[in-house]
Amino acid sequence: MARGKLVDNEALYAALLNGRLAGAGIDVFATEPEDPDHPVFRLPNVVVSPHIVGETRGTARKRNASIVENIDRLARGRELLHRVDFEKPK
Asked: What's the sign of the alpha-carbon dihedral 68, 74, 33, 62?
């Protein structure tokens, strides 16, 4: 288990192909979106999903409600929910 940039896709592919790894479940890649022609997508021991694999119907509804709320707030010129400000490098 690791975040996208911690995984070397070529090494992962080789390990899956030669049996050093039995399988992989991937929902984050170092490069987003990953090249759809990458050979890892053709391996039978790989499952790829969007980065929402841990969501349930309940959490998806909450997330969708938050998105709709933010669209409404944006349209009305109001402050967005859960806003994160990033400091620009100096």
From this structure: negative
Handedness of CA 40, 41, 46, 49 (dihedral sign): positive
Token pair recorded at residue 33:
């979106």
Beta bridge partners of 24: 46
- What positions carry a catalytic annotation? 3, 32, 51
Q: Are 33 and 18 contained in the same domain? A: yes
Domain of 76 in residue numbering reads as 54-82
Phi/psi of residue 59, nearest 5 degrees: -70, -35
Render pLDDT for 18-49 as a digit per residue (tens, 0 to 9).
Answer: 999 999 988 777 777 778 888 888 899 988 87
